[in-house]
Amino acid sequence: MMRAPTTLTRRSALVLAGAAALSARLTPWAWAAGRTGLHGLSVFGDLKYQPGFTHFDYLDPNAPKGGRMNFAPPNWTTNQSVETFNTLNAFVLNGDSPPRMELTFDTLMSRATDEPDAIYGLVAESVDVSDDLATYTFHLRAEARFHDGSPLTAADVAFSLALVRDKGHPALAEALKPMVKAEALDAQTVAVTLSQDRTRQTILGIAGDTPIFAKAFYSAHPFDSSSLDIPLGSGAYKVGDLAAGRYIEYARVADYWGKDLAVNVGTANFDTIRIDFFTERQTAFEAFKKGDITFREEFTALTWATGYDFPALAAGKVKKTTEFPAEKRPGLQGFYINTRQAKFADPRTRAAIGLCFDFEWSNANLFYGSYTRLASLFGNSDYAASGTPGPDELAILEPFRASLTPEVFGEPYVPPKTDASGRDRAILKQASDLLTAAGWDQVNGEIVDDEGAPFEIEFLSLGDEVYTRFLTPFTNNLKALGISATLRQVDPAQYQSRVEAFDFDITLGAFHFTATPLTELIQFYDSRAAGQPGSNNLAGVKEPAIDAALALLPTVDSRDKLLAATRVIDRVLRAGHYIIPAWYLADHRLAYWGIFGHPAAKPDYDFAPETTWWFAKDRAAAIGYTG
């Protein structure tokens, strides 16, 4: 619904290169310098699982194997599509591939999704780190095998890393750009050397996300082309039955070489994971009602509220639930006020505008009560400020106390709840008082500045009816105060051009950060980014206290220090009313046939039922499900 860029533009990257270069020092990684035989890696070295651990806590080591999940993927990546597929190569730009092809390949290490950025040995049993943090030497498990029984060696790893860097899909290749070389030292040892352009996330992406291919296979098959040839993999699943563009089945590899490794215990429980492809959303929903699909996540509030009234649900055969919370990844969806314009310079003016957004009315009347109001700029994460500033936060804030509003040093700002009428008179009175305090006058029912010019606000959005639905009540409340508020809807090209040039009054935006946000925050809130066209500092934030907190991020050496910096940023932004927080979905909206079991707890940073749930024969029998 909202604008959601996830990468830097080229222009903003170049301008902020000086700041990003600081990350080359990699201070957070200092804990790993010169260490050998490491069983895991993380940015700050805070690994939850110690050597010799038996399984991840969020998995059930006794989960039974068998059965199938007919799965509607709620997410996908690279060139994957849920409407059709014409290639089985999910790691290049060409073609449309089926989601979850990554299940057929192993990686050097595996992510623990109950930790923000930790990875543990999979194909690699251990890793050594050079003193200068530039070289990571991985020691491979001798038992690692491809599906045809051939050994997986360091030559395959070195080949794969170079192949993805040079010819892979940009979503994967970008993380490998700082890799100078990957060299097989012997059959079980591969050394990865990084340049000074590396970031804290580089080695995590290389080891934790990059698939390992069989060198022999891709020496005989072009990698950068679309093909339905089944690639030789090494993962817990292999490609089974398929019909191009219609369905694909992933078959569990019974003799999978890594099935007993600690990182795999409790995973890959279904014998078969099937994905059917649909070009129409309603057609897919009808397939779910009949049981042709057995698991889906619902993303449409209207369907969630009114569409689940079919016989199987009424009979108790289908479960509809919001029991699984959303991932704890910081992000913000909201209305960005362009403070480069003089009319928005006073934070009291911005606060008044924010009070005119009646979230409670919109949620009840437009969204069927599905959403939760955001307050923090790091919503639904530990990085959000709460209570009064602690000692670590005060150490950053105190030098700027004289220039900061007193609100920064109290409880962080939380938007007040309205009476959900759409025009809460008490809150609109607060907004009117704030405008008066900010120097605006009311003449004949119209808000004007000290020269008599009317206060005009234009909301910029894409030309979609969905924006009209919730922006119209917002602008109506502004008009009730005497502000001339209008909505300008444009095509995607014009929208992007205007936003990159900061040619707007207020616009919508949605941004999501990594689970360990560091220098990526610079392009969002640094004063230098405010003046750089194309940056994501849409509100034009220029706050010395925020700049000071951002300056600490390249060299913070603990998660506690990172938390202090992000909470300072959050406090100052909220007190300054630069962004009007919108909403988020607090839980996954799931519907599934009652034939599955699942672990007792969901991890904080991912949700993958297709690899962590299992088929429950007794439950299937109880509802008469035969599949």
Describe this structure in words.
It is a single chain. By secondary structure, this protein is an alpha+beta fold. It has two domains: 33-277 and 595-622, D-Maltodextrin-Binding Protein, domain 2 (3-Layer(aba) Sandwich); 331-584, Dipeptide-binding Protein, domain 3 (Roll). It is 28% helix and 19% strand. It is built from 21 helices and 25 strands. A five-stranded mixed β-sheet has the order 19-18-20-14-21, with helices on both faces. It has a four-stranded mixed β-sheet with strand order 2-11-10-9, with no helix packed on it. The chain has a four-stranded antiparallel β-sheet with strand order 5-6-8-7, covered by helices on one side. A hairpin with a 7-residue loop joins strand 3 (109-111) and strand 4. Helix 3 packs across helix 4 (170-176) and helix 10 (347-355) runs antiparallel to helix 13. The two termini are 36 Å apart.
- Mean pLDDT level: 93
The oligomeric state is: single chain
Give the biggest sheet: 5 strands, mixed
Q: What is the class of the largest domain in the CATH system? A: Alpha Beta
Could you give the order of strands across the largest sheet?
A: 19-18-20-14-21
Helix-residue proportion = 25-40%
Determine the CATH superfamily of the largest domain: Periplasmic binding protein-like II
What portion of the residues fall into strands of 2 or more residues?
Answer: 15-25%
Q: Distance between termini?
A: 36 Å
Overall CATH architecture of the largest domain = 3-Layer(aba) Sandwich
Unreliable spans are 1-25
Per DSSP E runs of 2 or more residues, the count of β-strands stands at 25
- How many structural domains can be distinguished in the coordinates? 2
Helical segment count: 21
